[in-house]
Design brief:
The protein is of the alpha+beta class. The chain has 8 helices and 14 strands.
């Protein structure tokens, strides 16, 4: 049962250390995840305003890759007049991002309402290139999750944890031992046409198209309503399952040579698009045809790049989609994903 809280419960360093030892020796994840109350909490950040959206709204979605660069991200969000923002990969108390609660810091900087939920309890410091940089030797909280930030109040907030995602495939194989699993966050906005449903998730890149569609099928069965809706996020529509390939980068290059459009237009290879169509979502007017992966200075992600961040709308008119480079005023990248934006007409 999800508990709405003002502040996420911080698991002790001792509990995280014990969990790491336990899962290393082969204890089932399901024996340990319930000991972390933060996995069943939804943080509600409310600034007390009560504005109703009138004619239109600009909505954005951004995987901010830990959220460390939230101050530089805020400049782009304000410049683009974004009013509601879906966020993924936001850290809370991680050494690699300065021990900050990056979603809360960004919400405070913008003066917005917000929701935050923990996707994973990180049991070590991060991936190899993150721990190669000077960092503190421990995480204050070791939490990593998704958020919705909004200029307008967020009503009826909820958290849904996917039943087929316990994070166990991550352990050691990807040098990031963690507990938790993929999940979705949602709420409603009060607008001039009545309530509008918001849904966002971050689907698994180390599973395949079938598993990603199964996750959305579960989400829609549990959470989709009759209301006008906008759904979006980092859906990792890579068109393949990396665990089934011996050399994913080489094989991606071969697939792109055979079909240059494959990673920009993955609809034929990712059944989640058919699923969304079945539920009356459309995506043609709310997305551009540009890649959303952004190579960082460390040389990753590698080409061929694709569009893996998406919006879908139901019973709403979307227009003016944009894919905005995740590059700050200093010319350096902010994230390995670009920001996507579109305008929703409320009529």
């Amino acid at each position: 049962m999800t508990k709405r809280v003002n502040d996420i419960s911080i698991p002790s360093i001792e509990l995280r250390a014990d969990a790491l030892v336990a899962v290393d020796r082969g204890d089932p994840y399901l024996d340990w995840a319930p000991r972390f109350s933060c996995l069943d909490e939804l943080q509600v950040m409310d600034i007390g305003s009560s504005s109703i959206i009138e004619d239109s709204i600009r909505i954005g979605s951004w995987n901010l890759e830990r959220g460390k660069e939230w101050q530089r991200a805020a400049e782009i969000i304000e410049r683009e007049n974004v009013e509601v923002l879906f966020l993924s990969e936001m850290d809370l108390g991680m050494s690699r991002s300065g021990q900050q609660h990056t979603a809360a810091e960004l919400a405070a900087r913008l003066g917005w309402h917000g929701l935050f939920a923990v996707e994973f309890v990180e049991l070590e410091l991060g991936n190899p290139w993150e721990i190669a940089s000077p960092v503190e030797s421990t995480n204050v909280a070791g939490l990593h999750g998704n958020a919705i930030l909004s200029r307008y109040p967020l009503h009826k907030p909820w958290l849904h944890r996917f039943t087929q995602s316990d994070g166990s495939w991550w352990h050691r194989q990807f040098n990031e031992p963690r507990l938790g699993g993929r999940m979705a966050v949602g709420a409603t906005l009060e607008t001039s046409i009545g309530p509008v449903e918001l849904l966002t998730t971050h689907l698994e890149n180390n599973q395949g198209p079938i598993e990603r569609a199964d996750a959305l099928r579960e989400l829609f069965a549990r959470r989709l309503t009759h209301l006008p809706s906008v759904f979006g996020g980092d859906l990792n529509t890579s068109t393949l399952n990396p665990r089934l390939h011996t050399d994913p980068f080489r094989e991606r290059a071969e697939l792109a040579t055979a079909n240059p459009d494959r990673f920009l237009n993955p609809c034929a290879y990712e059944p989640l698009f058919d699923l969304c169509h079945h539920h009356d979502f459309q995506w043609g007017t709310c997305n551009t045809t540009e890649v959303t992966q952004r190579p960082r200075e460390r040389g990753y992600p590698k080409a061929p790049l694709g569009r893996i961040d998406w919006f879908f709308v139901k019973q709403l008119i979307a227009q003016h989609p944009k894919t905005i480079p995740a590059i700050g005023q200093d010319g350096l990248t902010i994230s390995d994903h670009d920001l996507i934006v579109c305008e929703l007409l409320l009529r």
